[in-house]
TrEMBL record:
GO molecular function, one term: 2-oxoglutarate-dependent dioxygenase activity
Domain of life: Bacteria
Organism of derivation: Nonomuraea jiangxiensis
InterPro entries in alphabetical order: Phytyl_CoA_dOase-like (IPR008775)
Protein name stated in the entry: Ectoine hydroxylase-related dioxygenase, phytanoyl-CoA dioxygenase (PhyH) family
Keywords of the record: Dioxygenase, Oxidoreductase
PANTHER family xref list: PHYTANOYL-COA DIOXYGENASE, PHYTANOYL-COA DIOXYGENASE DOMAIN CONTAINING 1
Xref: Pfam families: PhyH
Matches recorded under SUPFAM superfamilies: Clavaminate synthase-like (SSF51197)
Source species taxonomy: Bacteria, Bacillati, Actinomycetota, Actinomycetes, Streptosporangiales
Amino acid sequence: MTDLQSRYALDAAALRHFTDHGFVRLPGVLDAGTIAAYEPEITGKVIELNTQHLPLEQRDTYGKAFLQVTNLWRHSDLVRAFVFSRRLARIAAELLGVAAVRLYHDQALYKEPGGGFTPWHADQYYWPLATDRTVTAWIPLQDTPAEMGPLAFAAGSHRFEYGRDLPISDESERALQRALAERDFPVVAHPYRLGEVSYHLGWTFHHAAPNRSDLPRRVMTVIYMDAGITVARPVNDNQWADLRAWLPGAEVGTVPDTPLNPVLYGDAG
């Protein structure tokens, strides 16, 4: 199995792609044996902790997009070992060009069979953080063909400031689909091979198609931030909620060095 502590060798092309396009897809970050060792526990915790029990047809667009369960690492030592992987965190630090990264939070995103589309959005709309040195690792736990709804990116959109005030919604889907097309941002939507992991910046716009297969699309994500980042004053209600939930006790203008936000790679100084 892949050693979750070992280094993944990023090449210059991957680093350049991330800088230019706001995301990168990396092959062979994990192997089949490693995923097989952790996926049952992650899936078991999603089933145990999931609070969404409405039938798909009774949910709103966000509810149809996926089952979302956060901070699984707090409920399982095995999941904690996965989320705290030095290998995954070091990739995040090297892509961001920072000496160290700390955890913002993890979240499982399971798109059920028949689950709907994930609207266009940028994650950092939700995060009360002072800089853009944030990145999400998107880790499929199976081969993810087109019919399962793999993550798709608008290449270069991390520099596009329109739409940064939009929460994920039907409105963000309509407005961003139009705006991104008008500006000719290429949409990169490809299947994921087992073991492939993508990383995208907090301001990179992305979405996903519905799951048209008869199997759940099982994905684990880990969100990293520069270990020296500081808390910004929230500018919307969602950021106030995130401050309370994911950065408990952290004050505006301070580094969020809380028990929920440990350094996962490097020396925070």
